[in-house]
Design a protein that fits this description.
four-stranded mixed β-sheet, 713 residues, Immunoglobulin-like, cytoplasm
Length: 713
């Protein structure tokens, strides 16, 4: 086995020394001094040199470029560190990054007595200060590569180099991982012969902050000789993202009269830059307040937390005296801890001064007048109130109560939701003859309770005087409806009853006349003076104008007022039944075959327009004087039906059979009806009744129809 060849692999970082070869010991690329201590002055003066740094890439420092971790400092070409403006606090540490096409390094400046503004970049970049080239007892030694994001052309550019002091001839370097041969591919590459690591495009820390790569050496056949060794690439953040308010719209509410220092709301912004740097350290301030009265500084925002609080006395937060209860604040968030070089983002905060019930409603006057005609209902007067509170809240909406003068509950009061007025209504008709005047005491309150230091005063009650106007009221029938029971078919001219109507206008002493208003059958007459109702025709319970044995008529009572007033009364006449209708049979036509084995002809039913007991049970008989014996037979089935049958077959012809049916009334009534029986020829399932001289009806169908009628009864 071939012994392991010693290999020194140095990945040059922003603080790591780049070696061009292991044998070149006369010149060490990088800062000659890497750690400085500077006492914190009262103020760093603009353009005044603070110290001198010495950097060499051992190749003439062509295209040397310096970067300082603080935007308030720069390094001149001669290596002098100066402030760009007068500044007092810069933190505890500054870092200076130097770079040429051949080498790069980083120096650390410790500010003795400086205040900590943000976490140390040493922690962020994860490198050791003591040695730029970590060396271990191993062939491949690597350290993180630091690359600033958003670098400009040209690309590719070297960012590190692998140096092998005793690499076998023909061996090569290989770099793998995400960013090389895995997506996103092609960002980094390594010169397989020289070991130079280069980046091919600019980087975005907010997309990928670190890349974890692997470095190894391979032989000509691609077999690994040494490694792989992890190589971490850290993208150094630049302040390239503005703060963004992501959670809008921002609306806050504060109750009027709130104490100074009341928190209204919190507004926070997001910065996509590295949260461990000042690039994402935000500070908040109020850029503008609209309106700017009664104070241009009604609110204050905590610069670090974003909490918006009130800063004016409670008396200035009086919603009723404010020009507008809505304030709009332009809130600015600035990174770099709020320094002038920081990027900014803005959002609008809307703050509503909410109402509390610190004003009681007051009637616009102590007394209200109303007039209403007797017998009328509805709104008679609108009571107006004033309230300085917010019309959209329960602190403004009024609730009215009648506290006196309404024993009969004739009045009600409701709130008009649009105007907040109290709508006083009559819900039970008033009677002038009982009382011509009414006085009500009304109280008004808010839906929401008043604040403790405010109460309802005398202005929260009002008196309403109501005058009832007399009108000519129509006479009233007593009783209404009027009811009477009579037997049908009573004699014409019979007196049914005498109606009675009185005039509510008792103080006017008016006379009353009567007339018929509605008499559908024309059976009635009324005396216009005394109201006596008699009959002008026979009352018939079976009339189509009678419903459920009740006949309805309407009468008018007319007073002598000017103009006259009319009242309407209803008369309900219940008619008792008498046996005045004879029963009738159905059906009246039947068929039977001349050779039928079943000699049943038809089932007869009977009906009667009268009521029980003047109807069934019915008695069915054949009227024998006109019918020969021993041919027909009728048999009772039940109280309403009977079966007609033959005693022998008959020749094909039409036969008329007189059926006599009698009801159960006292005295009974009898009806004789001819049942026409058609005897037909029935051969080969065909029924021929033509010779019989009558329409064709199937005996079976007639029987089924009759049984159906029987079943329904």
């Amino acid at each position: 086995m071939q012994p392991t060849t010693p290999l020194v692999l140095c990945v040059l970082l922003s603080q790591v020394l780049l070696l061009t070869s292991a044998e070149d010991l006369d010149c060490t690329p990088g800062f000659q001094q890497k750690l400085f201590h500077i006492n914190q002055p009262a103020e760093f003066i603009e353009d005044q040199a603070i110290l001198n740094l010495t950097f060499s890439d051992c190749k003439g420092n062509d295209k040397l470029h310096y970067e300082v971790s603080s935007p308030y400092f720069k390094v001149n070409n001669d290596g002098s560190l100066v402030a760009l403006r007068n500044i007092t606090a810069v933190g505890k540490t500054l870092f200076v990054h130097a770079q040429t096409p051949h080498a790069e390094d980083m120096a650390e400046l410790v500010i003795v007595g400086g205040k900590d503004i943000q976490g140390s970049l040493q922690d962020i970049f994860k490198f050791e200060r003591t040695s730029p080239v970590p060396r271990q007892k191993r062939s491949i030694v690597v350290s993180p590569i630091l690359i600033p994001e958003n670098q400009r052309q040209p690309f590719p550019r070297d960012v590190g180099k692998v140096v092998d002091s005793d690499r076998p001839e023909g061996s090569k370097f290989r770099l793998t991982g995400k960013g090389v041969d895995q997506e996103p591919k092609g960002i980094f590459r390594i010169n397989e012969n020289t070991g130079s690591v280069s980046v091919t495009r600019n980087l975005d820390r907010e997309t990928i902050a670190t890349y974890q790569l692997l470095v190894e050496t391979i032989d000509v056949n691609g077999r690994t000789l040494e490694g792989p060794v992890p190589l971490e690439v850290i993208v150094i953040d630049q302040n390239d993202n503005r703060p963004i308010f992501q959670e809008g719209p921002y609306v806050g509410h504060v109750m009027e009269g709130s104490p100074t220092g009341t928190t209204v709301m919190r507004m926070t912004a997001f910065d996509a830059d590295d949260p461990a740097t000042d690039n994402a350290l935000l500070r908040y301030n109020i850029r503008q307040q609209t309106p700017d009265r009664p104070s241009p500084n009604m609110f204050y925002i905590d610069p670090e937390k974003g909490d918006i609080v009130t800063v004016v006395p409670p008396a200035l937060l009086d919603r009723e005296t404010l020009e507008n209860p809505k304030y709009e604040l332009i809130i600015e968030a600035q990174d770099m801890a709020g320094l002038d070089v920081g990027l900014t983002g803005t959002a609008t905060a809307t703050i509503m001064i909410d109402d509390k019930n610190d004003h009681s409603p007051k009637f616009t006057k102590k007394e209200f007048q109303a007039t209403v005609e007797e017998g009328a209902v509805g709104v008679i007067v609108n009571l107006t109130v004033e309230d300085k509170d917010d019309p959209t809240t329960g602190a403004w909406r009024a609730a009215y109560t009648i506290i006196n003068g309404n024993p009969g509950q004739s009045f009600e009061i409701h709130t008009n939701p649009q105007t907040n007025e109290g709508m006083l209504s009559v819900v039970k008709p008033l009677d002038y003859e009982i009382s011509a005047f009414h006085t009500l005491l009304i109280k008004v309150e808010n839906e929401d309770p008043l604040v403790p230091d405010v109460s309802y005063g005398p202005s929260s009650t009002a008196t309403v005087h109501i005058t009832v106007l007399d009108v000519n009221e129509g006479p009233v029938f007593h009783p209404d409806p009027m009811m009477v029971t009579k037997q049908e078919h009573i004699s014409v001219g019979s007196v049914l009853l005498t109606v009675n109507a009185t005039d509510p206008d008792s103080l006017q002493h008016q006379t009353i006349r009567y007339s018929v208003y509605k008499d559908p059958a024309g059976w009635l007459n009324i005396n216009p003076i005394n109201g006596t109702v008699d009959t002008t025709a026979v009352l018939d319970r079976e009339s189509p104008f009678v419903h459920n044995s009740v006949y309805t008529a309407l009468f008018l009572a007319i007073d002598s007022g000017n103009p006259p007033a009319t009242g309407t009364g209803t008369l309900l006449i219940t008619l008792e039944d008498v046996n005045d209708n004879a029963p009738f049979i159905y059906p009246t036509v039947a068929e039977v075959c001349d050779d039928a084995k079943n000699l049943s002809v038809v089932i007869l039913g009977a009906s009667d327009k009268d009521l029980h007991p003047n109807t069934d049970p019915f008695k069915f008989e054949i009227h024998k004087p006109t019918v020969p014996d021993k041919v027909w037979k009728i048999s009772k089935i039940n109280n309403t039906h009977a079966l007609v049958s033959l005693l022998q077959n008959l020749n094909k012809a039409n036969y008329h059979l007189p059926i006599m049916v009698t009801d159960s009334g006292k005295p009974p009534m009898t009806n004789i009806t001819d049942l026409r029986v058609q005897v037909c020829s029935c051969k080969n399932s065909k029924v021929d009744c033509n010779t019989a001289g009558a329409p064709h009806f199937s005996t079976t169908a007639v029987l089924l129809l009759s049984f159906f009628s029987l079943a329904r009864l």
